[in-house]
Amino acid sequence: MMQSLISTQDKRDYIQWFLDTHQLKNHESEWILKYLCKDEELLSLVHFVREDIEDYSRGMIISSEETDNKAFVFFKYHIYTSSTDKAFHDIRMQKQLPLFIQFHYPNAMSCPYYAGVLTENPNVKYYQQDTQQVDALLKYMKYEQQIKNLEVEIDQALDELDKSKFNYLTAKLQQLKEQMNH
Asked: What's the rounded Cα separation, in Å, for the pair 68 and 90?
């Protein structure tokens, strides 16, 4: 289960700021937000996200009247609904599950209040870790190939009895191994 570093009080303050500042397209979504604020345990499992909400198992999108986005969307495992009743029922019955919320309102992307409560997408972290691992593997494979190529050239220099080429290539091999160890 994903733990949040953002306090429930910060989440509650943000929701209250949002409700005070913006007129919602779907007024029933305000009831859901107020319900979340009253339940400390549930609010601890609420995570605000900015984008890629479809990457999560359960969430909702709430829009203000000032946007062109859908008023309200709730989803669970890629099943979507615009019914606040179904959303409220699921939230009440599945209190142990994390709930991800994305807000749409003017300048949301640059809003410091929103930025202050955002949760980083864990899938992005995994992707970055995977990319770093792939980069490290490719670097190692390149290193291994360079070693093999130098060893072949060193064998050739020995076969040709070319001492200067042998010395140059062994020094290059040693330098490459030292670089890889640092």
From this structure: 26
